[in-house]
Design a protein that fits this description.
alpha+beta, 2 domains, five-stranded mixed sheet, 10 helices, 20% strand, DNA/RNA_pol_sf
Length: 322
């Protein structure tokens, strides 16, 4: 440690990263779906320990500075202290329940970005950083962190050749979440209806009293689509959904669209790990969780029959009590 700290200080002061720190290994983690489809995997970058230390130093100080100047959008709950999935869900559902108590319908548009972290354009991100009053040496260091990165993939004890990383913030790196928050922070500009963000999870919603309210919501959706085009962050139209939260038997109908493509309506949506229904009932979420637990229990029962006595003891002691 005594030898490492002066070296880290020199690297930060000069804004230059040693070539070895610019390399990262990568592996792909299955998100969901068919294992044979490459698009179902999330690439994870594994950087060296010294690189992670540098990233953590810069990220923690930069986050403290940005929070002190109240830079972040108030309803961005991703990767920020004292904010979480739980706080976002609590505030979102509180809004919906409040409108329901007023006998109002709420239309919510859930937006899905296509590979958001991998598509962040380096030059556009750096231009936003330059407008934040960040010291030039830190800007230069971040530029090296983004632009001079190389990666390789390891599989079955074999490494691929090194390749250049031309866009995106490396998933798995300490600094990447903060850089993404900075990049997406101006998305809510000029949006008048309600908008909530958890990193790249975006929901746009509004109480609907008259057809004009739906038109206003569509207008704000158009503003977001324009931002996506300018920021080179396309939406995955097949995963974008519209849901109407209401207790009314005859809810207001409106066809929301993205670039003239209608958004598919849904009666339930998995938002930040919770399956929300149009009536905001827990029954859908509980049913899905119980079904998943039943499948897992069936897997354990089938495989424990063939397990060794030691494995059975471990299961009885550690798995069953939970």
């Amino acid at each position: 440690v005594p030898n490492t700290l002066p070296n880290l200080h020199t690297i930060i002061t000069n804004g230059k990263r040693p070539r070895r720190l610019e390399e990262s290994s990568g592996y792909s983690r299955l998100k969901s779906g068919n294992r044979a489809i490459p698009a179902n995997y999330r690439p994870i970058s594994l950087t060296s320990i010294p690189s992670k230390m540098l990233e953590h130093i810069i990220a923690s100080n930069l986050m403290t500075y940005l929070e002190s100047i109240k830079f972040f959008f108030d309803h961005q709950h991703g990767f920020r202290k004292q904010l979480s999935c739980e706080t976002q869900l609590a505030e979102f559902t509180h809004d919906i329940l409040h409108f329901m108590d007023e006998n109002l319908q709420t239309d919510a548009i859930f937006l899905d970005f296509s590979k958001a972290f991998d598509r962040v354009p380096h030059n556009l991100l750096l231009s936003k950083l330059c407008n934040l009053g960040i010291p030039p040496n830190i800007i230069f260091w971040i530029e090296n962190f983004l632009k001079n990165r190389k990666q390789f993939t390891s599989a079955n004890d074999h490494d691929s050749p090194l390749s250049d990383v031309t866009s995106g913030v490396p998933q798995g790196a300490c600094l990447s979440p903060l850089l993404f928050l900075i990049y997406i922070n101006d998305l809510p500009t000029n949006v008048l209806t309600k908008l909530r963000l958890f990193a790249d999870d975006c929901v746009l919603y509004s109480p609907i009293c008259t057809p004009d309210d739906s038109i206003k919501l569509q207008h704000d959706l158009n503003l977001i689509v324009t931002w996506c085009d300018k920021s080179l962050m396309p939406l995955n139209l097949t995963k974008c959904k519209i849901m109407s939260f209401t207790r009314k038997k005859s809810p207001e109908k409106f066809t929301y669209s993205i670039k003239s493509v209608p958004i598919s309506p849904t009666l339930s949506y998995k938002y930040l790990g919770v399956h929300l229904s149009s009536s905001l009932s827990w029954s859908t979420h509980i049913q899905i969780i119980c079904s998943e637990a039943s499948r897992t229990l069936g897997y354990l029962r089938r495989n424990l029959k063939l397990a060794s006595p030691d494995i059975k003891k471990l299961s009885l002691r550690n798995v069953r009590p939970t």
